[in-house]
Structure formats: structure tokens, C-alpha cells
Amino acid sequence: MQLSRRQLLVHGAGAGVLARWLPLLAARADAARQERVLVVLHLQGGNDALNMVVPHRQDRYYVLRPTLALKRSALHALDDDHGLHPAMNDLAALYAEGRLTVVQAVGHPHPDRSHFRATEIWHTGCPLGPSPGIGWLGRLSDQIWQREPGSMPALHVGDDEVPLALVGREYVAPSVSAELGLQLAELEGLDAARAGLLDASDGAGDVAFLRDVARGAYRAVERMERATERPDPVSYPDLPLARRLQRIARLLEGGFETRVFFATLGGFDTHARQAAQHASLLEQLSRSLGAFERHLAAAGLSERVATVVFSEFGRRAAENASRGTDHGAAAPVLVLGGPGRGGMRGSAPDLEALEDGDVPFQADLRSLWSTFEQEWMGLAPSSAFPPLAL
Amino acid sequence: MNRFLFALVLLLVPFTSRPRRAPDRPLPTLIPARCSLYVEACGLQERLREGLQDPFVRTLLDSKVGRAWLRDRATPPAEALRAADTWLGTPVLPLALGLVEHGVALGVDVASDKAVAVAAGRDEAAVSLGLERLFGALTRSTGWPGSVERPAEHWSGADVWRIGEDAVIARRGALVVLGNDESLVRETLELAADDATRGLIGRAQFASPYAERAPAELWAWLDVESLEPEGDAGFHELREAHRSPAFLSLLGPGLAGLATSGAIAASASLRDDALLVTLSGQDSASPAALAPGARSGPVPPELPTREHLAQALVYRDLAALFVQRLELFPAEVQPGFAEAVTNGSLFFAGEDLCEDVLAHVSPWIRVVMGNPTFREGAVPELPLPGVVLVGVLEEDAGESWIGAFQTLVSVIGLDQAQKGQKGLRLHLERAGDVELSLARYPKPGAADGVDLRYNLEPAVTVVGRYLVVGTHASLVAEVAEDLMHSPPLETAPGIESLTLDGRALAAVLERNAEALISRKMLDEGIARERAAKEIEGLRLLLESIDEARLEVDGVQPTRPRLELRLELARAPEPSR
Amino acid sequence: MRPDFLRPWRAAAWDHGAASHLLRRAGFGGTPAEVAEALSLGPQETLERAFLDRGDPSLHASIEPLLSAGGIESLQAWWMSLILESGAPLRERMALVWHDHFATSNDKVDDVRLMHRQNELFRASGLGDFRELLHDVARDAAMLVWLDGNSNRAEQPNENFARELLELFALGIGSYTEDDVREVARAFSGWGTEGRSSTFRAEHHDARPKTIFGHTGAWTGDDALELVLEHPACCRHVARVLLEAFVMPSPADEWVEGVAGLLLECEWGVARTLEVLLASELFFSSAARRSRIAGPVELVAATARALDARIAPRLAARMASDMGQALFRPPSVKGWDGGRHWIHSGTWIARHNALVELATAAQVGDGRVHVDLERSFGDALDALPGRALAALIPNGSSTRFEQTLASAARGARDANHARQVVAAVVLTAPEYHLY
User: For residue C84, what are the CA distances in angstroms to B21, C90, C335?
Assistant: First the structure.
């Protein structure tokens, strides 16, 4: 655990004392950092964040969105100028508790409105130049893998293919189905026999390496199975995202070693008749995250787990002719726990000063990723962009 | 066990529709109630009487697939029968007839794989003789069940003999019971000793279809609900068809009704050269709101068959499906609906998909499958049949559909261009009196080969109130031409139907045989020869069917009915 | 004079281990019958047989009707079927080596016919003259699409192909300069595709003089290739490829030099080079045996053959993909890194699953595995551990291993189960994954 600033001051009286504590502090801080977990959620399709975190004081909002604008009275108040979409009750409560941080206008230069390219940019953290084919979470996984070969640094929870964000040079996260977990082909008698062989320590080089990895893999599967056996302290809504977060929470509760988790919620590409569908999706997001955070709190994990929710782009400030919105650029990112101290970061988007119909970006996504790589996980960042003060 | 299977084979040969003498007591009173499958072979007696000269057996053997089967056999059926006669020591057919003259039925507890067969013989003497001969031959060959004089046990007044490890055969008076599980046979014999109406007949779900069954056919009954614990993922998906918009749209109310029925009764019979199969379901979960007739609408006429492969009339009330989605479907699929509505509205230039578009389409839709005419230089290496849909619209509603089609093609073309692919291009063409909007790929280069996607040349046109849309322009043009000179619209028939031309389908299969063989080789890891043989078998089967007509009656949503009529094609040369 | 390590290996110790080693490297392993036959034939004849093509032509042609239908999975299944059949072991092995070396991915090419054509090129010319192969690869349509040939024009050169040619295909980093890359790119300007055919567009070709490796001239693409082939680093680069593919990872410089010399002596003939290399002292040395972590494709194929299993090619291809080697879809132009890069927790689980499925003749989706362990291992249960180890990990058994297997066999339900457990334990043991 980290010493708070107050405690440091109290103990700072004797430099000698501090000197004795410092290495321990560093080691503790290191150890704490090593236990930290990052959960990344991708809202696929381009979330209309202007209707999620609403700058309701600006008249221009209502002018740009004659049918889609949300009534001020219906919103959950965030600060004087902003409100949260009416469907997001749980997230409003988390904001009130100081657990939710909203980072305004995160984006990058030269926005690309193609789903494919924008996703690539956010997943790799490389807005310029061709994609390196490696994801920013993959780079984190590689670092963890270097230190602990045979571990399972990252996991993708979902049924589709592993996202680019998780592809590393050395390590590529496996996909785990929310319902089924990691399936291992079984054969009676195999486990017992195998245990004996894997405990051996003879052989060097490649054999030892293979053994380490194998042991780690089997241990991971076993722990995953055990983790699902106990009942949950909270009830989760019957929604796809909730099931994925439930799987993650159970794994963490079971002491699973994985440090990075990734899940996706799709359906945000609302070009027409946006209101109902967007509300339904935001409700799913809010309720799922609400249950997830309650579970973490009940299991005493809140301090260790940070969640970041992003989308590959926001949507245009003005609505279109079909009562929907088109692809945009920068948008707010939600952070739960972790380096975020709660509240709004950055200034409100100025709807009078749009660039090409979009909110101009304030924070570069590379800085955002640095924040998590360096500040939160204590690993080497993938870019030189300074971390944000959240 | 082989002998048990031999007996089963005898039971599964179909028969004529001449009324049979009913057994003294209905066979279902003898079958234990826990059986989930019941099969009664009411016409077996006629088959056994006539043997190989029986008209239906002859029809089967004369068909193309039958002929091929005969060619593959080492011993022709006549010789096989003679060998059986020798083995038995007496002609086999009359002997068997003596054993089953008053009825034969099979009960199966599918969950546990246990089965029992009961046969009501001519009289005690015939049955005793039959068993004696049978046992004699069996004992000579295999050593069991031993002499008919020495039954192993007596249960409920019946003599019992054991066959092999599990199987048991018993005789009580003129009744023969054969089963692969001791407890099931015991139960059957207890029912035989009893006069009460217990057994399968006591189940309400069974009793009423049994009472209503049409005379003398192969009749079967299946408790589908009891199979659910065993089924795989695909089976469960079918059982939940009423909760899936995709399945309901694909299968339609009638077929979805059958898929979701609690129990299904089936019968098969032969009429002239046609095989008739009927299925009726009970306690089906098909929604009443989507049943044929729930919304009335005009019907597109039947089209003259121009060598069409298949033609169907289906009832799909998509408007009701969308409008009532909250009541009909679970929460999981609602976002999908929302997305479909918003995207659909996009293509229809902002009109509401449910209120403005689907509500003005008749739920009766005609479907035609045929072989398209391909452009020169763009004939796909794997030519596939095309499909055309004919719907009936309100007046002047056609334009928005054409607009939607054009928008869709443009969007697809743009998407393909972004990916660097050669995209569909929109064309407007006149074919005779018909103006078509169509999309096609630019012709491939001479050395480039013609890929599968050249099978697609989607087109749409409006003829009066008819909307004609299909996967290939030449077919759409043909259908549109026919509709121009078509009779006025009929009133709703209430029944969905499908007609297939087996031979035409066989020709399609043949054109694509090489690809199918290759697929089989790669999917199953078998040699070319075996794969080719299996594909050829399928082709012959299709060629043996002159016409297949399927009618589905889903008017009563809880009691769907299906009738399939297969006209079998006779091969030119007579069989020997 | 040929260096010592390339001299023919004295066949005195031609045992099960040596035969297995040769069959696994010069092909994709052997069935128990094939290993026995190899033992009786001796190393020279066994190697000669590996060069033969005794495959079923109808299997080779089976992909043709499906090419117009476009699915890459069918192409993957088809190549896997040829590998599993092992009608022409060295030919297929070499094709896989070139596929990894000249790595081209369908994810970008997106054309099954072009990938098929490239694959056939590797198959037909892979064992021939490397110089001709290099020329043919440079004009291969799939390669041109993959490395942006169509974008390489005089006004605006695209260096993608030139860079990979020098860095990965022919010379290796350090043997050329950035200027060389630029000039080579100019030499190839105008090379592109028209539909599915390779073509040369003179109007896009930069015909001005270029200086490549210090030589100036109005070089064309073909000229550039000749200059590359003449570069002293080229034969060393190719020699390294052959050594890493067939002998051991990270070979010493001395050996690379020796094989480079051999390659030149054989006038760039790959088959002739392999005839010497695969019969050499170095090849049969203990440093070379079981020195590599088996890649997914060879693992699935060799295991299926060692167990005499029949497996649906589509399923086999999918197993290899799950383990990280999707044929026709290498992760980048560098191909598959191999070695320890094959192994992490996710891929280990995939390996475990595939191997247990093979051992237990599982029904996996629509694909079926047919295996008769009794035929492979015999029916004597007390000899079972020894025979399983001998068949699967030759010269790799230990008392502890045998004891573990023996107790696993004793604890089994019946004879069939015993064989399955023993096979599964051996296959999922880390030792098994060294080929």
C-alpha cells in the first residue's frame, strides 16, 4: 500500500527513518504496482459522447441537435455545465462517490473517420504512419511476459477475435468466452500424470522454458475454473457486457494473475434514429459497470483495478437528417478508479468553435495511454507523450 | 443384436393405404408410457404378402437411386430372399406375416436408447411355429436364444428368452415382444396382462392424434419435448425458433410451429407413384400474430414453370414481426431490431421502416428459384441458381423500394471501393417491356477466371403492384414478363407451399459436382473416389424425384400441419 | 575441399532416433511403418525417397474447382492435405520454408487464386535453382500486390519491395545502404499487376541510371536481381535460411560460411545442396537433433503421422491456426519468428487441446480424427510406455517418464483408455515439442 502524503510528512521528521523506509517503500510501491489491474472497454462503432456527457449550458447544443438534444432536467448533474445521459444511473452514482473521472476531448491529430483505421489508431496508439501491427496493451503484455515468462499477462473476454490492442511481439492474449472460460480438452488421468512430469526441474534451455509456460497455462486454467465456482456477492444484469465484466471480476476475486483485460461493447454506430438505441446501450454500459464496481468493492479490489472506457471516435456535433449522427473525432473518455481522482478533466467542448463540425481534441490519446502504462501499471510507455494528470 | 436390427428393418418398409384389420386391442395400450417415440407399421402385412412383386417395392427399385443401389449389391434382392428362406428352413415372408398379421409397432425411449417392439400375430399357433423356426435358425448360427421349448423365464404369463447380452424376446399368446432392455419388456408384458387403458395410449398428447390418424399408413409419434435434455446446440436453437426473429423470418410460422411443437405425429403412405408424408404438431409455440391469415393481403399469382427449379408461396408478416417485437422477443435481440429499423429507414430515405414500408407489403410472397442466363465472359466457374421474390405492394409504393435498392448498391459499392475491391455498379436497363434497376460487377479480365461472386447480379423492378427483386437480372426480367400477362390477384389461400423439381436440382448438382467433391475431400479427409460416390448418390436421389410438393398449414398456430408429396420418377428400363 | 561438418555422416549409428530425425526434418515425420522402412533402407536411400513425388495427383488438383469460390480456409485445408499425405515430403517442407521466407499474407492480398499460384511456384521451383526462384518471386502477382508493386512508379517510387528484398529475402541488414534501397526501388518501378496477371508498365518505369552496390547503369528490375545475387552476402543469407530451417536455430558463422560455399558449388541448386546438407555430420550431430521447438503445422502433421491418424485437413489447418501458424496468413513480411515465439500460455493451451484431440480420436465440430492407437503402440500394456516414448520422443525417455506413464496406464479404465492417456501424456510433455 502507498503511504499517503500526510503519513510521509509525519514520518519525514527523521531523514534516517525515511532512509530506512525508502527502499521498503519503493519495494512496496513496486509490489503494489505489480498487482495493479487495467480493464479496457472499447465502445465499438463510435459513441455519441456529446449525448453521454452533455454540455447542457451551451445553447448551441440545442440548436445543433433539434431532435436529439436531451432535456437538462432529465440529466444527472456532473458539474454546473455538464450532465450525464438519463439512462446512466449507476455511473452517476459512481461520479458522486468520486470514483468516475471524465477526461474531455481525447483524440489525436488528423482524425480518421473510418472505423477500421480509427480503431487501429486507438488500439496501437499510433495516429501517424502505418500501423506497427502491435497494440499498446500488447506492448504492456510483452513487458510483463519478459519478467514472468509462463504467466498470462492479458486476456480478451469475448467471443470474437483478439483485438489488435492486445497483440504483442512476444505475447498475444488468448480470448476467453464470458460464459465458458478457457476450454481445456480433458482426459481422465491426464492431470495426475502431467503434474508429476511438470514438477521436474531437469533439462535446460528450451525444455525448461516450455515447462514454465505449460505450468503457467495449466495453473491459469485451473484458477479460472475455481474462480467461477463461488457465488457472486452482487447480482449482475442479464446483459452481454455485464457477463464479460462478471467474468473479469470473478477471475480477480479468485486471485488470477492476469493484469490486463479487454472487452468490447458494439452497436454504437447510430447513423439514424439514434435516441432509443443509444439510450439502451448507455444503460447497458452503466448498469454493467455499476455491478462490476460493486463487486470489486465487495471483494476489496477497488484500489487495484482501473477501468478505462473509450470509443474509436465521437460523433459530429450536429445531428443529421435521419435523426442520428455521423462519424466525428475527439470525445470524452471515462476512467473508473486508478489514476483518476474523480471529476471532470479538461475544459468543456466549445460548440461555437468546432473544427470541421467536430470538437477539437484537447488531450492526445498517446498521453492517455502513457498515463496508464507509466503511472498506473508502472511499465515503460509506448510513446514519449507525457502522462495526463487525472 | 443383428437380428434385432433385422426385425427393425422389416418394420420400416412402407405400404399401401388399403384398410387393415385392426388388432384386437390397440397396440399403443401395450407400449409403456415412458416411450417418447412410437412407430406403427400398419401396411407391413401387404408388403409381406406380395414380396418383391409389391407395387411400391417395385417403384422404389425402379427409381434411379434404387437402380443404382441394386447395381452395387453383390446379391440381388431375390437371391437374398432365397438365402433367407434357406437359412430359416421355410419361406421367410409367410412366416413373418404370421408373426405380424394383426399389427406391429415399435416404442422407443429415446433418452435412454431403449426400444421395444410388439407384434400381434395371426394366432397362437402361427406365432409358435414362427418362433420355433426363427429360434432354430438363430440357434444354429449364433447359439442363442436356444430352443423355443426352454424359455429362460416367465414374466406376467409370458415365455421369455434372452438374446445375447441385453436383448430379450417374449411370447404371450399370439403376442410377440422384442426389446433391448429387460425393464422395458417387463413393463410391456405387464401391460399386456392388464386390461386397463394404461401404456402410451394413456398420455393425452398421444391419445388425440392417435384417434385422429388417417387409416392404414406408417404412423409415428414423437414427444419432441422429452428430447430436449439430449439435444445439441442446433437442436436447441430450433426449439427456441419462436423467440428468434431470424428463424421466424426464415422458416415462417408453419415450419417454426413444427420446430417448436411439443409433440409431432407423422404418417407416410403411397398413392400411385407418389410418396405422401404428413406431419402434424401439437402445442406449438408459434406466435398467433404471425400466423397465416392473421393479416390478410393479396397473393402474387403462381408463375408458369419455365424450367424453374422451385417455386414457393410463403407467408411472412414482417410488419407484425417488427411492430410487436417487444412482446414477441427477448431483450437480447431488441438492440438488433433497433439497429435494423434505423438502418432500414436510412435506405428508405427516412421513411419509418415499420409504419411506412413494411405495413404496405402483403405478407404473401412468392419465391422462384431458377437458372439464370449469364453474360458472355462472365459465366461463373461455379454457376449457381438464382432466387427471385415477388411481393405485392400498395399502389405507388414501388418507387421507394427501387430507391432503397439503388441506395443499398451504392453503399456496398462505396464500401468495396474503400477496400480496394472492384465493386458493384448500378445500371438501368430495359428488358422487353420491363425496366430494371440492376447491379453488376465489371467483366473480369480474360486470364482472371470468373469468381463465385459473378453469380450475383441483383435486380429489382416494379410491375403494376408487384415488386420483383432477385439475385439475378435475367431471372427478374423473366418473372416480370410473366407477371405482366398474369391473372388477377387471388384471395389468400391460407397455406404456404413449395414445389421442387428434383431432376432440375440434380442437374445443378451435377454442374457443381467437382467443387462439392473437392469440398468433401478437404472437410472429411477422404479419397476422391469415395467423395465422388457420395455426391453421385445424392444426385441420383434428386433425380429420382420428379416433383416434390410441400404444403404447410400454419393457420392454427398451436397445431401446424405439413404435407409432403414426392412424385417418384420411373427409370426407363423395367427392373428384373 | 568440403569442410568436415559437411562430410557424409557415418551411418553406423543409424537408429530409431536418427531415422526419426531425418524424417521429421526432410518432411513432416513418418508413420511407424515408414520409420521402420527407413531403418531398413538406411539414411541415403531414405533421403533420396524424400525427394520423390509419389503424391496422388487428384489430391493436388482437388483445389481447382474451389479457387473461384474464394475462401482462404479451403486453400489452407488443401495445403494441409498435401502435407498430411506426405506424397512429396521435401517438396512440401521446402514450400513451407519459402512461404515463411517470402512471407506473403492473404489478409492484404485478399485473393485465393493469387495465393495458390504463389504456393505452386514454391512447390514447383522450391528445390530448383534459387536464382530462378528469386526472379519468379519478384514477378509473382501476389508478391507484387503484397509489397505495393503497383504503387512503385518513376514519379513516386515505393520502396516496400526493394527494402524487403534486401533486408529479408536476399541480403540481410548491414549488407546494403539506404541509397541501395532507393535505387533498387527505382529499378523495379513499373512492375505491377493487371487484374490477376503480372505486368510491366514502361511508362511508370524510371529508366535513368542507378547506382546499386557501387555499380552504375540503367538497371532494370531483372538487373537489380542479378546484382543482388552476385552480392557476397546473398549466398550466406540463403545458407542461413537453409541451416535454420533444416539443421538448428542460430547456426555458428563457420557453418553459414560452409553452407554458403556449398550452395555456390551446387550452382544455387537447393536440392543438390540439401542432398549434401541432410546427409552431413552436422545434420546428424547431437547439437542439431531436437534443437528446435516444433512449429504448429509440423507439430500437427508429424503427430498425425506418428499416430497413424486420419484427420480432416480442414480441422488440421484450424488446429495449426489456433496454435499461431495460419497458412497463407503470416503475421508480417518477416514470416513467423518461430522458436520460443511459438509458445505462450494461449498457444500452449491450443497445443494441449489439439494433441489431446488427436490422441483421443475426438469428434471436434464437423471434423473427425480417426486414430488406432492399438495399431501404433501394440496391445501389450506393459510395453506401452516404452513403445509410446520410442515412437514419439526417440532417445528422449527417462526412468521417471516411463514410471509416470506406467502408473497412468495402470490407473486407466481399460486398455483403450490406457493407450489414450499414455499418448496424451507424452504428447503434452514439453519434451515432445522439440523436433
Answer: 61, 12, 22
If one counts the domains in chain B, the total is 2
CA distance C285 to C283: 6
- Cell numbers of C22, please? 531425418
Contact by Cβ (8 Å): B40, B69: no
DSSP character for C193? E
What fold, for A30-181+235-376? Alkaline Phosphatase, subunit A (3.40.720)
Using CB atoms, pick whichever of B331, B335, B341 lies closest to residue A273: B341
Evaluate if residue C318 carries a pLDDT over 60: yes
Q: Are strands C210-212 and C310-311 parallel, antiparallel or unpaired?
A: unpaired
Pick out chain B residues at pLDDT < 70: 1-24, 146, 148, 195-197, 216-217, 305, 487-488, 490, 570-576
Residues in chain A with pLDDT values less than 70: 1-34, 180-181, 202
Which are the contacts of B396, defined by CB distance < 8 A and separation ≥ 6? none
The residues, any chain, with a CB within 8 Å of residue A47's CB and separated by 6 or more, are A268, A311, A314, A315, A331
What are B180-221's pLDDT values in tens digits?
988 888 888 888 888 666 788 888 888 888 888 887 568 999
Q: Exposed/middle/buried for C219, CB within 10 Å: 0-12, 13-18, 19+?
A: buried
CB contact under 8 A, C74 and B522: yes
Q: Do B343 and A271 touch (CB under 8 A)?
A: yes
Return d(Cα A317, Cα A65) in angstroms, integer.
8
- A12 to chain C nearest CA, in Å? 45
pLDDT averaged over chain C?
A: 92
Q: Considering its fold, how many domains does chain C have in total?
A: 1
Angle, helix C221-230 to helix C130-138, in steps of 10 degrees: 150
The B residues from 502 to 521 touching C (CB cutoff 8 Å) are 514-515, 517-519, 521
Chain-centroid distance of CA A97 in Å reads: 19
HSE of B268, CA atoms in CB hemisphere, 13 A: 14
pLDDT reported for residue B193: 83
CB spacing of A277 vs B346 below 8 angstroms: no
Written as one string, the DSSP assignment of A214-282 is HHHHHHHHHHHHHHTTSPPSSPPPSSHHHHHHHHHHHHHHTT----EEEEEE------SSHHHHHHHHH
pLDDT given at position A99: 94
Q: Cα separations (Å) of C215 from B304, B541, C174, C209, C232? A: 77, 71, 18, 10, 14
Domain ranges of chain A: 30-181+235-376, 182-227
- Are residues B342 and A272, on separate chains, in Cβ contact within 8 Å? yes
C-alpha torsion sign, points B224, B228, B231, B237 = positive
Give the pLDDT mean for C146-159: 90
Domain containing residue C384: 373-433
Predicted complex ipTM = 0.91
- Say yes or no: B214 and B349 in one domain: no
Is-contact C347 C354, C-beta < 8 A?
Answer: no
Number of H helices, E strands in chain C: 24, 7
Show the cell assigned to C51: 525427394
Q: How far apart are CA B20 and CA B216, in angstroms?
A: 6
**What is the sign of the dihedral through the CA atoms of B230, B233, B237 and B240?**
positive
Q: Tell whether B341 lies on the interface with A, counting CB pairs under 8 A.
A: yes
Residue contact B523–C314, C-beta within 8 A: yes
In this complex, the residue of B382, B522, B527 whose CB is nearest that of residue C77 is B522
Instruction: Confirm whether C417 is domain-assigned.
Output: yes
CB atoms within 10 A of CB C407: 14
My answer on whether B294 and B217 are in the same domain is no
Put residue B105 in one of left, alpha, beta given phi > 0 → left and psi -120 to 50 → alpha.
beta
What is the pLDDT at residue B233? 75
Distance from CA of C138 to the nearest CA of B (A): 20
Residue C367 has a pLDDT of 60
Asked whether residue B146 falls in the same domain as residue B44, the answer is yes
